[in-house]
Amino acid sequence: MTAKYQVVTYPNDQNVAQAAWYSPWVVNTRHDDVAYVYFQSGTVICLMPGESRRINDSSTDFYGSKWIAISSASTC
């Protein structure tokens, strides 16, 4: 694990720890909150509660995560 976020912040975001910018995976371990991940390219993904996703392939828009926002919503 390179970073951990616990506070619901949506619609405001929080900086992703620099150690996690190029992590190959993102995991939302929250049980009932979604997480929005914002990338350098401007792409935004929404992770459902418990969802994990492979990211940071330099040939895609999912490269270099910079911000995260946690929402108390249970769906994207």
Helix/strand layout:
Elements lengths: L13 E2 L9 E3 L6 E6 L4 E4 L4 E3 L10 E7 L5
Antiparallel strand pairs: 1-6, 2-5, 3-4, 3-6
Could you name the key traits of this structure?
two-stranded antiparallel ribbon, 6 strands, 76 residues, mainly beta, globular, four-stranded antiparallel beta sheet
Task: Summarize the structure in words.
- The protein has one domain (14-71).
- 0% of the residues lie in helices and 33% in strands.
- The chain is built from no helices and six strands.
- It has strands at residues 14-15, 25-27, 34-39, 44-47, 52-54, 65-71.
Structure summary, number of beta strands: 6
- Tally the helices: 0
Strand order of the largest sheet: 1-6-3-4
Number of domain modules: 1
> Which overall shape is indicated by the principal axes computed on the Cα atoms?
globular
Mean pLDDT metric: 82
What's the main sheet like?
A: 4 strands, antiparallel
What is the straight-line distance between the termini? 24 Å
Low-confidence stretches: none
Briefly note the structural class of the backbone: mainly beta
Order of helices and strands: EEEEEE
Helical proportion, percent range: under 10%
Q: Report the β-strand fraction as a percent range.
A: 25-35%
Cα Rg: 11 Å
